[in-house]
Design a protein that fits this description.
The complex is a heterodimer of chains A (111) and B (115).
Chain A (H helix, E strand, L loop, with lengths): L3 E3 L4 E4 L4 E7 L6 E7 L6 E6 L4 E3 L2 E6 L4 E6 L8 E8 L8 E2 L3 E6 L1
Parallel strand pairs in A: 2-11
Antiparallel strand pairs in A: 1-3, 3-8, 4-5, 4-9, 6-7, 7-8, 9-10, 9-11
Chain B lengths: L4 E3 L2 E4 L5 E6 L6 E7 L5 E8 L2 E4 L8 E5 L5 E5 L8 E8 L3 H4 L2 E2 L3 E5 L1
The chains are: A mainly beta (111), B mainly beta (115).
C-alpha cells in the first residue's frame, strides 16, 4: 500500500462549482499534514497546513480524520486560476526526516 | 536569498556523462531536501540534510547518486554515469527546523534530460 494515496482525477468543473479531494495515508504515526499546489511545469507551493480541528483559508477548507486516516480539501466557488494539481503531503516520521508527497489530484476549472 | 535557487534550470547530457546540480537554500534554513519528479509522477524523496550532515539518504536510487552540503548552505547533487531513466525534474527544498508548521519552500528545479 502506498504511503499517501490520492485520486489522480482529472476533476473537470465549471467556474463557481464546489469540489472536494480526498487523500488517505497509511501510517497512523503521521504527525503533520499539508496540501500543496503544483502548476504545470512549476514547483510545488504550500497551499495550507491541515489541523486536527479542521481549518479554513478563504475558499479553501481542509479537514483531517485521524481515525480513518484521511485528509480532505474543499474548494468553494472555483476560479479558473484554481486549475492545478493538488498534492496531499504528510510527515510520517519524527522531526528530521522528509515529507511524503502523494501523486496529486488534477483540477481543471472551465468557464 | 529570497527563495531557493537551483542551477542550471535545464540540463541536457549524454548517457554516461556525470552531472552536478546545485541548490542554494533560503538563508537561515537549516534543513535541505532533494526530490525528483519524473514526467507525470509524484515527488520521489532522495536525500535530506540537517546542516552539513545527511541523516536520511534512504531515497538515493543507486550508488551513482551522491550529494553534499557545505557550510550549512549550498548543496550539490551529483549523478555519475547518467542513464536515460535519470531524466526528471530535480527539486530542492529548504525549511526551518519547525517544519511541522510551515512545510517546505521549493526551488524551481533542474530539468535533466539524458539523451
Amino acid at each position: 500500500r502506498k504511503e499517501v494515496e490520492q485520486d489522480p482525477g482529472p476533476f473537470n468543473v465549471p467556474e463557481g462549482a464546489t469540489v472536494a479531494f480526498n487523500c488517505t495515508y497509511s501510517n497512523s504515526a503521521s504527525q503533520s499534514f499539508f496540501w500543496y499546489r503544483q502548476d504545470c511545469r512549476k514547483e510545488p507551493k504550500l497551499l495550507m497546513s491541515v489541523y486536527s480541528s479542521g481549518n479554513e483559508d478563504g475558499r479553501f477548507t481542509a479537514q483531517l480524520n485521524r481515525a480513518s486516516q484521511y485528509i480532505s480539501l474543499l474548494i468553494r466557488d472555483s476560479k479558473l486560476s484554481d486549475s492545478a494539481t493538488y498534492l496531499c503531503v504528510v510527515n510520517i516520521r519524527q522531526a528530521g526526516t522528509a515529507l511524503i508527497f502523494g501523486k496529486g489530484t488534477t483540477l481543471s476549472v472551465s468557464s | 536569498g529570497a527563495g531557493v535557487s537551483q542551477s542550471p534550470s535545464n540540463k541536457v547530457t549524454e548517457k554516461g556523462k556525470d552531472v552536478e546540480l546545485r541548490c542554494d537554500p533560503i538563508s537561515g534554513h537549516t534543513a535541505l531536501y532533494w526530490y525528483r519528479q519524473s514526467l507525470g509522477q509524484g515527488l520521489e524523496f532522495l536525500i535530506y540534510f540537517q546542516g552539513n550532515s545527511a541523516p536520511d539518504k534512504s531515497g538515493l536510487p543507486s550508488d551513482r547518486f551522491s550529494a553534499e552540503r557545505t557550510g550549512g548552505s549550498v548543496s550539490t547533487l551529483t549523478i555519475q554515469r547518467t542513464q536515460q531513466e535519470d531524466s526528471a525534474v530535480y527539486l530542492c527544498a529548504s525549511s526551518t527546523l519547525d517544519r511541522l508548521r510551515g512545510g517546505y519552500t521549493f526551488g524551481s528545479g533542474t530539468r535533466l534530460t539524458v539523451v
